[in-house]
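Hallway conversation turned thread

IA: we were arguing at lunch whether anyone had actually written out Large ribosomal subunit protein uL4 end to end. Turns out nobody had. So, for the record, here is the sequence (206 residues) and right after it the structure tokens. Reply here if something looks off.
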Amino acid sequence: MANVSVYNMEGNEVGSMELNDAVFGVEVNEHLVHMAVVQQLANNRQGTQKAKTRSEVRGGGRKPWRQKGTGHARQGSTRAPQWTGGGVVFAPTPRDYSFKINKKEKRAALRSALTSRVADNKFIVLDELKFDAIKTKDFVKVMNNLNVSKALVVMNDNDVNVVKSASNVPGIKTTVTNTLNVYDIMKYDTVVTTKAAVESIQEVYA
């Protein structure tokens, strides 16, 4: 089992913690990680784009000139795509971009993402992360103590003081263990988590 150091909010090492190899020590499957990221981005797309085709554009009902004898190319409508104000060829229409991947694949991708962060020494465990009040300055101080600038902060429960203290800090995102996802883990340079959150993750994904 891998061992990681446990720090306090002052950035001092106060102990160590064993990580479960079934979650934090698996063989990294880059294909599954990529597929999980693509799926999340695709599922987030609204898919509400729309442009009009030649059948939907207003006007152009009459043939602009007779078929033969004018010297012009034959035309059937002034709303054909080659005309100014005409319809769009193969215009985009509202659609659903989402697709599914298997639950086992999604869990394996999350394990791979967590393992890669541990292997790169980008996984920081805190003994606790608590504030008495909502103070952005206090949260920034903790991140500075840990030498972290762009991080995903994972908590076991939704601590309002921590969430609101971090909300205005650029490069920081807070989440809880039950909404943890591959895209966020890979997007942010470092994962900062609490001991309680690590234990919760190991219970769910081991």
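OS: looked through it. Residues 103-119 form the longest helix (17 residues).
IA: good, adding that to the notes. DSSP finds seven helices and six strands in the chain.
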